[in-house]
Amino acid sequence: MRGDVSNLVGAQDLRTVSLLRKELTEETPLSKETTLQVETLNSMRTAPVPAQEPHITRQQQVLVVEDEELVALDLERCLEALGYGVTIATNGPGATVAIRRRKPDLVLMDIGLDGAADGIDLADVLRKETDAAVIFLTAYSDRQTVERAAQVEPSGYIVKPFHEQAVAAAVHLALHRLRSERRIPPAGASSPAQQAPASTIRVGQVNIDMARHRIVLDGREVQVTKKEFGILQFLAERAGTPIEPEAILERVWGAQFAHYIQTLRVHIGNLRHKIETPASGVAIEAVRGIGYRLVESLGSSSIAGN
Hints:
By secondary structure, this protein is of the alpha/beta class. The chain has helices spanning about 1-10, 30-45, 70-80, 90-100, 120-125, 145-150, 165-180, 225-235, 245-250, 260-275; strands at about 60-65, 85-90, 105-110, 135-140, 155-160, 200-205, 205-210, 215, 220, 280-285, 290-295, 305.
């Protein structure tokens, strides 16, 4: 595995992520989360690239929000060696300025920032400024912290002390997902108005527009988060069929969050509040011992897709 990783991300040319962490030697085993990220990254790199995939020439930008100078500088060297443009901020005001000026594609956010607001609070505020992917970087690995962090809908979670392979894999995967979500068109592509009608799924009176990431209920757009949209889309794709919580978490959050059931319950509750109305004709049911399913409530019409 380590040989494959070195060839994949050029790790042999990188400096260690932390010069002070002597215990991080080549013999230190990778965590399950890191191994999964690396295996996924290997499969993505070896898979054939579709002919229509856009070619991105702009250097992708990463904002590192970290108040430990040595860690921030080591991350900067690691990321620059991977070809990314890097900006460092040590606090909330600095991060806000950097986002407005640099418009980063990814934010590496330390949870344990000094000050009134920690990294989770800051990431939540920064969501109003940017659609950049967020990866949390922290020494905390307890369930309460991770579940609280999951409410901000991060693209990844790296526990300190970390391997440079974990950083490379997590950043690559997060940016890959971001490109897919943004659906950046290739040069010369037709405008949205010239394209074919977007694919939608309709359940009851709820229309889910996958291409435009919109949910329309009775002619009115319902404001949902990315994670809420992902949950509803997954349930609608298999409307009437119960889906295990772990499957929803892995599909919407990623494999590293597959066991954070309470996080899913919170999002399901928020989603129910938004779409379970007399006009919608749908409900999200909890099926004991199995999971959740999207069903039409009494009096609605049909389940359809186009």
